Amino acid sequence: MTAQDMRQRKIRLGDLLVQAGLISEAQLQQALQDQKRTGSKLGRTVLDLGFIDEGRLLRALSEQLQIPFVELKHYKFDNQLTQSLPEAVARRFRVIVLSRQGDGLLVGMTDPLDIFAQDEIERLLGKRVHPAVVRESELLGALDQLYRRTSEIASLAGELEGELQESDFDLSRLGESNSDAPVVRLLQTLFEDAVQMKASDIHIEPDEGVVRIRQRIDGVLNEQVMKEHRVASALVMRLKIMSGLDISEKRLPQDGRFNIRVKNRNLDVRVSTMPVQFGESVVMRLLDQSGAMFKLEGTGMPPAMLERFRRLLQRPHGMVLVTGPTGSGKTTTLYAGLSELNSPEKKIITVEDPVEYRLPRVNQVQVNAKIELTFARVLRAALRQDPDIVLVGEIRDQETAEIGLRAALTGHLVLSTLHTNDALTSAMRLIDMGVEPFLVATALNAVLAQRLIRRVCENCMEDDQPDPRQLAWLEALHGGSLRDHRFKRGNGCHQCHNSGYAGRVGVYELLELDEPMIAALRRGDPQGFAEAARQQAHYRPLAACALDYAIAGVTSIEEVLKVCATLADDEVIA
Fold it and tell me: What keywords is this UniProt entry annotated with (predicted)?
């Protein structure tokens, strides 16, 4: 059915749903009244009122209108054809061009009865529209993947390069740039592309004759190289101004921050500059402050381990450590734990560097080494503020470790992080810092080690087999045969930008201290501590947790090997 057919039949969604028996006449009248109040489309209104679920609504539209219902999750797009429709139009009308169909185009629509949208597409593309019905969530995800801003970034970089080549151009004017200036538009587009790609960091790196713009997506850097190398200095200058940094200082590293609104999201941007051979390198960490929700269920922790971790957080005193390298999700786990503990009956103080996310009802303190406001100094002051729970962003030295452990002995629950590879070595790391073994043994309740591994893209997933050496190693870790098992890998597609991966999942190792481990700590016996830990019935090392995900087809052999590469052999196979 084409737009012309629908126009002639004057089909109305409400009548269609009632005729199909999906809603009653009374429900239709209620939905129409609610629609007048909210201004939403009728389809969205009946969904919000709970009269029908999205799947039944879309299938009904497909059957009644005799148009296809297309699942976009595994759809193979023609990028050039899809992008022939301007992004603004696609997002405004919630539509996406799918394929050529006869003399027209098959267009996915969340509302295939929107005749105005169909007319606009036909006007812009000069082709007859054949509508198909699609899920809104899948459509928005596809638009994010397909409408990258790389060409726009390249165009703006060229425009800025031309401006910088003017002999009388003064870089200091960048501080007065209006919203139409090329440098402002280029930065805004860089941020929009990063948000669209769910990047955690943006790197701007000047090199010989080029500037590299890199985004960290799912823990891996993706690069765009621009030959307009002069834009690097303009971008750095503008970012320094926005961050409140000294624009005249180019010899020393500087750190700053600013807030920016991008695609209806409030971003807290942490800026780090560093002098390099061809200018200054800038790295920006993007922290989305828009309704950030932290829940322990969202960490991906296995259910049995999650229940044990929850019980540990409910203890009135003692220290719980979360360990792992930078970028392994430690802060997210701690914030999720705090969110669960947060209540009017408890006073919570955090000591952080920096404060990454704002938590209601929590007293958050940012350390500042320039004025000697150190972790240890703030922690001492925090303990005089009558807290129930204290979070220390990171234990970096003996003094902070000792104050935190003594606080854990005197009726406080203390949460903190440590940069160690696994749970087994964390307790001994505190002793190596110079903390008395008896203090660690008495105050430390548990250690949670974690990593983030990439998920195989479901759209391009295919079978994979390890080589003989890998298979022998995986079987030793698994404790059984895996010869006939089919592992998974991603082949690369438009949805994962040819990486083979989409998203990440956490792998965990939770170690609760018991009497044999405590006795080994008191003796300062690392070997005895590790042996006692491995005797625990529910202890499972990080590598085994990662392998569980590979066996389940969630991640790849490659990701399991990455986790194990950071661990000693005796820490991999317990």
Answer: ATP-binding, Nucleotide-binding
- Which residues are within 8 A (CB) of 461 and not within 5 positions of it... i.e. 6 or more apart? 488, 489, 490, 491, 553
The answer to whether residues 96 and 86 touch, using CB atoms and an 8 Å cutoff, is: no
The C-alpha atoms of residue 60 and residue 78 are separated, in whole angstroms, by 28
Query: By CB neighbour count within 10 A (0-12 exposed, 13-18 middle, 19+ buried), where does 316 fall?
Result: exposed
Backbone angles phi, psi at 240, to 5 degrees: -65, -40
d(CA 241, CA 120): 42
Torsion of CA 464, 467, 473, 476, to 10 degrees: 70
How do the residues of the chain divide into helix, strand and coil, expressed in percent and rounded to 5?
45, 25, 35
Q: What range does the domain containing 37 cover?
A: 13-145
| Tens-digit pLDDT profile for residues 269-323 | 999 999 999 999 999 999 988 766 788 988 889 999 999 999 999 999 999 999 9
Residue type, 498: N
- CATH number for position 281: 3.30.450.90
Angle at 419 between CA 414 and CA 424, to 5 degrees: 80
| 270 in the same domain as 165 | yes
Are 526 and 415 members of one domain? yes
In a domain, 110, yes or no: yes
**Overall pTM > 0.85:** no
Residue 507 CA to residue 323 CA, distance in Å, equals: 12
User: Residue 86: is the preceding peptide bond cis (ω within 30°)?
Assistant: no
Please check whether residues 370 and 392 belong to one and the same domain.
Answer: yes
